[in-house]
């Protein structure tokens, strides 16, 4: 039996990196999925690749009404909502003194406010179904600071605080958890490395600082995400799980 058979999910940030790997995993395990992203070409291509159990809805997660639209799409196309997996994120690179106010706001809206918006509209539907869950893709940046990433670090720490609050508020009906990836080989990691003088060297250093001496792979993050939203994790809520190759212990 597939782990997510008869489950309906919304996945944000679904068109690249970890979000795309999670989308592939959820569909392969029987879920019907609303795919969210800004790039309509990539989104439609992914939906065509994954098949009839997916619908792509293009839009900007910083806008509350778009998040409401995602929930309505799940109900319209698949009749219910069981899982919300939030993966969209941007970096907002620049020191506190250099970072433009608009980029700070954009980063917080994308990485944190969007979680609030989507949860606000999803929770009434999630509460209707036993075993529902919310999963937030945070980061080790919630614990460990990096140069020129003030907005990113602050938004990810805020995401964990919001996760814990929602777990308290909506248990036992809904499980709410987060994952905190370390350096994973995605476009976001390579963009993050641009904050350093030698981006390629920065990525190599990040890999070497892990106890496993390599970057993570998107499918490895997807494996943890699948576990946390499945019934295998039925007694886990209010938890942030680090998946970082041991870099926080290095």
UniProtKB/TrEMBL annotation:
Pfam families, A to Z: adh_short_C2 (PF13561)
Matching PROSITE patterns: ADH_SHORT (PS00061)
GO molecular function terms noted in the UniProt entry: oxidoreductase activity
Keywords from the UniProt entry: Oxidoreductase
Protein family (similarity comment): Belongs to the short-chain dehydrogenases/reductases (SDR) family.
PANTHER family registered for this protein in UniProt: DEHYDROGENASES, SHORT CHAIN, ESTRADIOL 17-BETA-DEHYDROGENASE 8-RELATED
Protein's recorded name: NAD(P)-dependent dehydrogenase, short-chain alcohol dehydrogenase family
């Amino acid at each position: 039996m597939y782990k997510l058979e008869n489950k309906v999910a919304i996945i944000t940030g679904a068109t690249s990196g970890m979000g795309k790997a999670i989308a592939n995993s959820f569909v392969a395990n029987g879920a019907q999925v609303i795919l969210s992203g800004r790039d309509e070409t990539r989104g439609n291509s992914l939906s065509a690749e994954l098949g009839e159990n997916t619908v792509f809805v293009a839009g900007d997660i910083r806008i509350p009404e778009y998040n409401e639209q995602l929930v309505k799409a799940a109900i319209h196309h698949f009749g219910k909502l069981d899982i919300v997996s939030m993966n969209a994120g941007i970096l907002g690179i620049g020191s506190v003194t250099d970072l433009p106010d608009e980029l700070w706001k954009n980063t917080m809206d994308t990485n944190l406010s969007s979680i609030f918006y989507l949860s606000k509209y999803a929770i009434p539907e999630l509460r209707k179904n036993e075993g529902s869950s919310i999963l937030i893709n945070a980061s080790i940046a919630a614990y460990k600071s990096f140069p020129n990433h003030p907005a990113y670090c602050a938004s990810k720490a805020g995401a964990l605080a919001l996760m814990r609050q929602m777990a308290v508020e909506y248990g036992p009906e809904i499980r709410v958890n987060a994952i905190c990836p370390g350096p994973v080989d995605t476009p976001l990691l390579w963009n993050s490395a641009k904050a350093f003088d030698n981006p390629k060297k920065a990525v190599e250093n990040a890999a070497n600082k892990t106890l496993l001496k390599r970057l993570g792979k998107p499918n490895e993050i997807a494996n943890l995400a699948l576990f946390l939203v499945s019934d295998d994790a039925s007694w886990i809520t209010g938890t942030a799980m680090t998946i970082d190759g041991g870099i926080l212990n290095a």
